[in-house]
Amino acid sequence: MDNRALATTLLLTAYAAVLLFFVVRAARRTRSLADYAVGSQRFSPVVVGLSLAASVTSAATFIINPGFVALYGWSAF
Which phi and psi (to 5°) does residue 30 adopt? Predict the structure, then answer.
């Protein structure tokens, strides 16, 4: 295994561990399905703002930008 493959494996493992940490942490704080679906008053505005920014960025990356490239070609970049 070369250095790049090893580095990629280590980084993906670390990323998965960090995600798993946040998943378990969030699961412990969720008391009911209503908390999961709508949220609760305990959510800070910063977390809500970052979640919105992440979803908009994701939509732009995977939906909007490919559409612009399909429509306008390389000039869309």
Answer: -85, 120
Q: Is 10 left (phi over 0), alpha (psi -120 to 50) or beta?
A: alpha
Q: How far is CA 50 from the centre of its chain?
A: 10
Q: In the chain, where are the structural domains located?
A: 1-40, 44-77
d(CA 1, CA 18): 24
CA distances 54 to 3, 34, 47, 48, 60, Å, are 31, 22, 10, 10, 10
Global pTM reads 0.47
Residue 13 pLDDT grade (very low, low, confident, very high; cuts 50, 70, 90): very high
